[in-house]
């Protein structure tokens, strides 16, 4: 925290209130009804913590969960950041309901009264529950009085709120993990080719990937950004809400695949393909910080100028830093709901982390990959090229500017700057015994088939490639993130890094087990020309079932997030965007580390009656 660290306080004051003749003091307790309004109901939070967000508490093993998949209709229970009514319900609504429960209050009937409010109800003295109206920040009191007039007990408290927000790149958005994954129902004897006929020989091996489209396309919380509820940012906030039922946890996130410090966080994003229900859209994605300030502002926003001239010296190094002033979203004084914590993941795209990993996966000397027809869609970058952005200080300078803008937007003399919890990037190229190496095309069959990459299937990871990429890009990137711990208010989340070494591209260590985990549907032409599936069928794919590997390979991405409505409109790499991104287990490990740091840093009290 900048300045004095703010302490969130939960207050629950219990009075014995015993009068002569009262046999037992009832066991009072209370909680906020739906204390995580990012979801529309308390039941939605409970279900989420049983499935997607399970086993992320301190000391728990995230691998104890067998399947993190959510029901197809769960997306209907999630509020959207582009809907004003939903934003108001999340950040600005002060009216809440609390559930009061009691037990052991003796026999007979009692009257439950909410003092200073027009509420009373005749209830059983022994045990029961009631929902009462309350307001965030305002004290409330209830009493339980027997019909004889004898006070059985009373309870008072205050509902406090905690505001968490998420911004960042694809490691924060949930890329690779759509809310509703694609359903791949492929019938080899069917009629899914454009001509209405099936050429079985063309489907042999992995040829079916060029012909067939999923039966049901992937869907996202936000399709422009591939943002989903499987993001570690959602898991972290939901976990904190579940563990603090007397706190109203306000949360939303704007993280977006492809975002950089400049291109996405500070300025409108122009890298990620723009998609709407009609197909292609040229409209850009608004700056995440603009969206954040607009959501947190209680009234209509304007613009303000933030002076960036102190960073003018950086321009000769980084050509994107050409502005002397930042024209930011502004909220009138006193109308901004300041966040208690900002969850952040950014910097990987600034140094081309994804392109470097694709270079490791691609055939040696493969260069750009080309879709049939000559459209370039994936452009790998060598570790040596990417390392220049780290060696010449680009990333540190961008962090300097981001820190300055955050301070100008959220820091003032009336309240401390919110803590910034920055996630550090894991290294998917390590294993417990050294550097990763693979043989053959495990995990990349679909990518090799869809793209004409030198006519070769030499898709693998060599130990030398893994070592060079680690030394030239990944370790310097991790060091650049760790250096931000010296910034006032910044907290680096890296408690997941050691565990992730056991779950990278080369997990599991046993080769036979790895082949099973990397299984990809393959067509074999049997006797008489009959086509049959080998390994697994496309519909057997379970994107959120437990795996030893916590990182998506091209095959995973192809089967999980292909969108058949857009498949022939957009470059084919859209179905592969999930490659090199964490799966739901990877996000669970991030969430575990993040929730622990948040709970300790901002001292969310754990309430014990």
From TrEMBL:
InterPro entries in UniProt: SEST-like (IPR037460), SGNH_hydro_sf (IPR036514)
One Gene Ontology biological process: lipid metabolic process
Keyword set includes Signal: yes
Domain of life: Bacteria
Record carries keyword ATP-binding: no
Signal peptide span: 1-19
Keywords on record: Signal
Entry GO MF terms: hydrolase activity, acting on ester bonds
UniProt protein name: SGNH/GDSL hydrolase family protein
Species this protein is from: Pigmentiphaga aceris
């Amino acid at each position: 925290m900048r300045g004095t660290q703010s302490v969130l306080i939960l207050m629950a004051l219990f009075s014995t209130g015993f009068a002569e003749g009262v046999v037992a003091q009832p066991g009072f307790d209370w909680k906020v009804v739906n204390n995580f309004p990012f979801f529309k109901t308390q039941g939605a939070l409970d279900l989420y913590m049983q499935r997607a967000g399970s086993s992320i508490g301190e000391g728990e093993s995230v691998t104890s969960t067998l399947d993190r998949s959510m029901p197809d209709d769960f997306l209907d229970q999630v509020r959207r950041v582009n809907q004003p009514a939903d934003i108001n319900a999340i950040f600005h609504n002060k009216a809440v309901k609390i559930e009061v429960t009691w037990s052991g209050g003796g026999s007979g009937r009692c009257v439950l009264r909410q003092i200073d409010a027009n509420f009373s109800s005749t209830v059983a003295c022994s045990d029961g529950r009631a929902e009462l109206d309350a307001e965030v920040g305002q004290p409330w009191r209830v009493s339980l009085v027997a019909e004889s007039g004898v006070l059985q007990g009373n309870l008072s408290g205050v509902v406090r709120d905690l505001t968490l927000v998420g911004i960042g790149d694809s490691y924060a958005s949930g890329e690779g993990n759509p809310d509703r994954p694609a359903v791949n129902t492929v019938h080899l004897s069917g009629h899914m080719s454009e001509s209405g006929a099936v050429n079985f020989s063309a489907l042999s091996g992995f040829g079916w990937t060029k012909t067939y489209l999923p039966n049901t396309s992937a869907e996202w919380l936000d399709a422009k950004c591939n943002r989903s509820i499987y993001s570690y940012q959602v898991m972290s906030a939901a976990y904190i809400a579940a563990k603090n039922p007397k706190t109203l946890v306000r949360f939303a996130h704007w993280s977006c695949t492809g975002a950089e410090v400049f291109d996405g966080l500070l300025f409108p994003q122009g890298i990620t393909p723009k998609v709407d229900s009609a197909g292609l859209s040229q409209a850009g994605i608004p700056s995440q910080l603009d969206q954040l300030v607009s959501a947190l502002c209680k009234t209509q926003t304007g613009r303000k100028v933030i002076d960036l001239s102190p960073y003018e010296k950086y321009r000769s190094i980084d050509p994107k830093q050409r502005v002397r002033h930042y024209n930011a979203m502004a909220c009138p004084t006193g109308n901004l709901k300041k966040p208690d914590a900002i969850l952040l993941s950014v910097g990987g795209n600034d140094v081309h982390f994804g392109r470097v990993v694709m270079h490791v996966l691609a055939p040696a000397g493969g260069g750009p990959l080309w879709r049939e027809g000559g459209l370039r869609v994936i452009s790998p970058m060598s570790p040596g090229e990417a390392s220049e952005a780290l060696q010449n200080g680009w990333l540190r300078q961008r962090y300097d500017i981001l820190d300055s803008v955050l301070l100008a937007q959220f820091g003032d003399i009336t309240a401390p700057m919110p803590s910034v919890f920055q996630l550090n990037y894991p290294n998917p190229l390590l294993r417990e015994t050294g550097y990763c190496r693979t043989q053959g095309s495990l995990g990349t069959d679909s990518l090799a088939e869809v793209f004409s990459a030198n006519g070769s299937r030499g898709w693998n990871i060599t130990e030398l490639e893994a070592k060079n990429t680690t030394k030239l890009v990944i370790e310097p990137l991790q060091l650049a993130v760790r250096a931000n711990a010296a910034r006032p208010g910044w907290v680096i989340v890296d408690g997941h890094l050691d565990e992730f070494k056991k779950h990278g591209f080369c997990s599991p260590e046993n080769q036979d087990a790895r082949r099973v985990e990397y299984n990809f549907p393959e067509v074999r032409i049997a006797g008489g020309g009959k086509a049959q599936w080998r390994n697994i069928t496309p519909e057997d794919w379970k994107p959120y079932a437990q795996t030893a590997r916590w990182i998506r390979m091209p095959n995973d991405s192809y089967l999980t997030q292909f969108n058949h409505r857009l498949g022939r409109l957009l470059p084919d790499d859209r179905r592969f965007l999930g490659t090199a991104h964490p799966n739901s287990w990877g996000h669970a490990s991030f969430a575990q580390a993040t929730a622990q740091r948040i709970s300790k840093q901002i001292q969310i009290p754990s309430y014990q009656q």
